[in-house]
């Protein structure tokens, strides 16, 4: 009798658990996607994207039962009042003249963290410090070095992103941060299926870090256009983009496969994924793949072959180049290109020169954000903006809106945000000067003579997703496919890092002083001790 009661109780509990799991899964969803794109110089772009959706109404602080959304991310966002978060680790430089648009939103070298935090100014500052320390522990990075001296408050550059524009937006940048497998391991563990099934099986650290360009990041925000009811949905996205060279792994130029490139084979789709898709963007001629895709569509100048891993098991995808054929170079370059250089010489002063190129035949409105550390004292009155047109003399360009934030020594960097309208087919040059401050000897890094890495500038502009997708990055094409999505996509172009050489003290002087002092003292002591202890005997 007791056995029957226990069996009935277990059956009832299992029914309740199954019902709860179904309700929970109805409130959450997971989508994984891989984009493979052979590039013009023989390299290959792999863009991994894993997206988790969760109904905001299902959240209840730390008492929420997490299923797909990583618990550590959810609790960090709830504890520190984060309504939007973006974190990116990047190594290498994206060559937009060869490869076209960058696939990821962030492509600046180093580590970048951006967050909208609720609360008053003092509360947000305290939460910002706690957020940086928490993320530092989660991703095994040096984000705990993000403080007031390297945190800025952009107002125009990221104003159109997210759903909580009224909250305080903070941005921290660590240009010296290196990316390694210690950052990738916790990133993979946040995936529902990790690297055991689905597209995540291709995440081989030994191949991902033998690359020419690598960017990895996460983002957390709230969207309202992915549900039919229009209710807010929490979206957590993990992105990883890498540019690999098949020749570096001993693969032939004419034929190779995805498993040979990554040294891993695909298997079954992730069981909890609602969509598991592989898209291969190929030129119309000169390259063929096996097996046959589930569908083929034309996007710009390329044919996109789509494989649905939920419909069939795909273990590998082979690429075969026809004799003499190479991937076509991108005929449509990005609309805007930006570069930045350091000018001047000597240890007392210098300057910055930024070049922004508009490749389109129409004017483009851009936002220029440049943040310099406090020890580079910027003179805003020296700012000069000249726009050089094709076949015409250079003209002085005045910003339609400008925000200058002066630096505070060891407390806040200087920031400059400019809204510019670039003339058609123009080359715009920004110049300004700065003085180099003095640091305490304890504030210099171990390799002080190498110089200080300065974070890149950001040029932002908007693209219309209703136009041809031939002139759009991958994330803009994805946004255009979402119903009721805003028909404008914001593109951020990061310039190069530059090294600022500051006056450095002679770190060897204490050693030299100690050495010469000890030498003189030893010689003096030896002579005196010899005279005091020696007996002079007359023979």
Describe this structure in words.
This protein is of the alpha+beta class and 539 residues long. The chain has 2 domains: 297 residues, no CATH class; 128 residues, Sandwich (Immunoglobulin-like). The chain is 20% helix and 36% strand. The chain contains 9 helices and 26 strands. It has an 11-stranded mixed β-sheet. Strands 15-16-22-18-19 form a 5-stranded antiparallel β-sheet, with no helix packed on it. A 5-stranded antiparallel β-sheet has the order 20-21-17-24-25. Strand 12 and strand 13 form a beta hairpin. The longest helix has 26 residues. The N terminus is likely disordered.
- Strand % is 35-45%
> What's the total count of β strands?
26
Instruction: List the quaternary state of the chains.
Output: single chain
Sheet bearing the most strands, described?
Answer: 11 strands, mixed
Number of helices: 9
Q: Unreliable runs, pLDDT <50, ≥5 residues?
A: 1-25, 479-485
Helix content: 10-25%
Q: What average pLDDT do the residues reach? A: 83
Termini gap: 121 Å
Strand order of the largest sheet: 5-6-4-3-7-8-2-1-10-13-12
Signal peptide: 1-19
Transmembrane segments: 509-529
Keywords: Membrane, Signal, Transmembrane, Transmembrane helix
Protein name: Gpi16 subunit, GPI transamidase component
């Amino acid at each position: 009798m007791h056995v029957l009661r226990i069996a009935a109780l277990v059956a009832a509990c299992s029914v309740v658990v199954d019902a709860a799991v179904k309700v929970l899964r109805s409130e959450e969803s997971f989508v994984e996607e891989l984009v493979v794109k052979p590039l013009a110089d023989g390299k290959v772009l792999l863009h991994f994207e894993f997206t988790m959706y969760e109904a905001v109404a299902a959240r209840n602080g730390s008492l929420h039962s997490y299923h797909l959304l990583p618990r550590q991310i959810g609790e960090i966002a709830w504890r520190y009042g984060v309504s939007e978060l973006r974190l990116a680790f990047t190594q290498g430089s994206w060559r937009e003249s060869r490869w076209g648009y960058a696939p990821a939103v962030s492509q600046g070298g180093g580590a970048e963290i951006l967050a909208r935090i609720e609360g008053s100014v003092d509360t947000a500052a305290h939460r910002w410090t706690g957020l940086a320390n928490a993320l530092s522990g989660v991703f095994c990075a040096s984000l705990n070095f993000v403080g007031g001296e390297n945190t800025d408050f952009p107002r125009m550059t990221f104003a159109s992103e997210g759903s909580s524009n009224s909250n305080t937006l903070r941005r921290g940048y660590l240009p010296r941060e290196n990316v390694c497998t210690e950052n990738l391991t916790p990133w993979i563990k946040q995936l529902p299926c990790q690297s055991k099934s689905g597209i995540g099986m291709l995440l081989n650290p030994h191949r991902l870090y033998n690359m020419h360009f690598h960017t990895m990041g996460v983002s957390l925000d709230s969207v309202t256009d992915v549900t039919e009811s229009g209710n807010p949905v929490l979206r957590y996205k993990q992105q990883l983009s890498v540019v690999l060279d098949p020749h570096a792994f001993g693969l032939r130029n004419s034929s190779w496969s995805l498993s040979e490139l990554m040294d891993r084979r695909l298997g079954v789709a992730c069981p909890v994924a609602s969509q598991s898709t592989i898209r291969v963007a190929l030129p119309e001629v000169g390259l063929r793949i096996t097996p046959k895709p589930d569908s083929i569509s034309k996007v710009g100048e390329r044919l996109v072959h789509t494989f649905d891993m939920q419909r069939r098991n795909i273990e590998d995808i082979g690429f075969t180049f026809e004799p003499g054929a190479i991937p076509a170079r991108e005929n449509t370059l990005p609309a805007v290109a930006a570069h930045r250089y350091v000018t001047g010489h000597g240890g007392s002063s210098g300057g910055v020169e930024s070049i922004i190129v508009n490749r389109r035949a129409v004017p483009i409105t851009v936002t220029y954000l440049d943040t310099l550390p406090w020890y580079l004292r910027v003179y805003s009155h020296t700012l000069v903006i000249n726009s050089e047109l094709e076949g015409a003399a250079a003209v002085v360009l005045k910003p339609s809106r400008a925000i200058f934030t002066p630096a505070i020594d060891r407390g806040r960097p200087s920031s400059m945000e400019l809204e510019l309208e670039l003339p058609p087919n123009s080359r715009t040059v920004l110049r300004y000067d700065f003085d180099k401050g003095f640091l305490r000897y304890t504030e210099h890094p171990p390799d002080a003579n190498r110089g200080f890495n300065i974070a890149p500038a950001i040029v932002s502009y908007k693209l219309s997703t209703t136009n041809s997708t031939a002139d759009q990055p991958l994330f803009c094409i994805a946004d255009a496919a979402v119903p009721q999505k805003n028909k404008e996509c914001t593109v951020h172009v990061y310039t190069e890092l530059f090294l600022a050489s500051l006056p450095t003290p002679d770190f060897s002087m204490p050693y030299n002083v100690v050495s010469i002092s000890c030498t003189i003292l030893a010689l003096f002591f030896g002579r005196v001790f010899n005279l005091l202890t020696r007996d002079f005997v007359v023979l």
